[in-house]
Amino acid sequence: MFRPNGECLTTVPVKESADMVQKVIDFPFQVAEAYSMSINQRELPPEFDGKFSSVVILGMGGSGVAGDFVRVLLRNSRIAVHACKNSRPPAFVNRGTLVIAITYSGKTQETLEALDASLNSEAKCIVVTASRELGSLCEEKKIPWIFTPWNGYSRASFGYILVPVLGILNRIGLFPTLESDISEAIMVLNEIREECGPNVTLHKNPARLLALALADALPVTYGEYNFTDVVALRWKQQLNENAKVHCYYDIFPELLHNEIEAWDAGTGHAEQGEHSVLMFLRDSMHERDNHFEQRIEAAKYLAERNGAKVFELWTKGKSELARLLSLTYMADFVSIYLAASRGINPEVTNNIDYIKNQKAVSIESKDV
């Protein structure tokens, strides 16, 4: 199996992926631009007064994980937040529910169908999209919508997807710290870019070193319930789509009641551990508040005893948004460097395109 040497990771990844590399480099700017646009969002209709019993965020793929992030960021909110990755919204959706439908392309079948069902349930709905075509349809049907810039690939547009949603929630009083959180997040992201960018040599670049370790390994990401677990999912998705590798993820503390048994050195299957690289996505504040520290350290010991290589990746920043985005940005860099080491073009998603083409969505046929 191909294992890269250090040299292949000391230059910008394969020529065909230069556009994706640039989009990763530009992520801090993307977050800043998305926030600037959110400030100037059109006024929401009067019925969007913040008096909702629940919030449901519709989306798939990169749009869907944005819903997961919002769910975590608002987990202590006065109202319940639910991320829906399906064509059918939860049964509780009604006129007291705020539904935010995110379809970056404007053609996501599951999201459009769930939006249609939400409208039939008399929910207050708003659409976030980069599709002018869908936006025009929303105008015709008097559905509020927010335009976000088209960036080529939803997985390279997380700032353009997440920040407008936070802007909506800020306007209705559910995320009042948005301005300060974004400011800190941009600062932290710029620091990570300086550490992990393509101009930083291998031995000084933590993202490249991790990609090198993953070259012949099975990646496994472990996150912490109701916080870095959403980033662990994002890592899985980025490694799947950009580097075309399998990746598994699990969640502390639940994995301590099942998954941890797979790291039993006494089973005689040490090769299982030797072929795995575990990434523990850690946050000291969250661990302290939830009493995770000692159990995570114990899990690390057991995995390493069974031959697994463990990387501990710690969040940076003070606000929850900055901390989550810090590890999210690292995933972007690692996934494109791993793609380069495997000779893979991260811009192409042939299998996803094949699935989409099996049942193309006609926007005009939807009742949204």
Your description of this structure?
By secondary structure, this protein is of the alpha/beta class. It has two domains: 6-13 and 184-341, Rossmann fold (3-Layer(aba) Sandwich), CATH 3.40.50; 45-171, Rossmann fold (3-Layer(aba) Sandwich), CATH 3.40.50. The chain contains 14 helices and nine strands. It has helices at 18-25, 27-39, 61-73, 109-120, 132-140, 158-171, 178-196, 206-214, 229-243, 270-274, 284-290, 293-305, 320-341, 350-358, and strands at residues 54-58, 80-84, 97-102, 124-129, 145-147, 218-224, 248-252, 276-282, 309-314. The protein has a five-stranded parallel sheet with strand order 2-1-3-4-5, sandwiched between helices. Strand 6 (218-224), helix 9 (229-243) and strand 7 form a beta-alpha-beta unit. Helix 3 crosses helix 6, helix 3 runs antiparallel to helix 9 and helix 9 (229-243) packs parallel to helix 13. The chain starts with 17 loop residues before the first helix and ends in a 10-residue tail after the last helix. The model is unreliable at 1-14 and 361-367 (pLDDT under 50).
Secondary-structure blueprint:
Layout: H1 18-25, H2 27-39, E1 54-58, H3 61-73, E2 80-84, E3 97-102, H4 109-120, E4 124-129, H5 132-140, E5 145-147, H6 158-171, H7 178-196, H8 206-214, E6 218-224, H9 229-243, E7 248-252, H10 270-274, E8 276-282, H11 284-290, H12 293-305, E9 309-314, H13 320-341, H14 350-358
Parallel strand pairs: 1-2, 1-3, 3-4, 4-5, 6-7, 6-8, 8-9
Helix pairs in contact: 1-13, 2-6, 2-7, 3-6, 3-9, 7-13, 8-13, 9-13
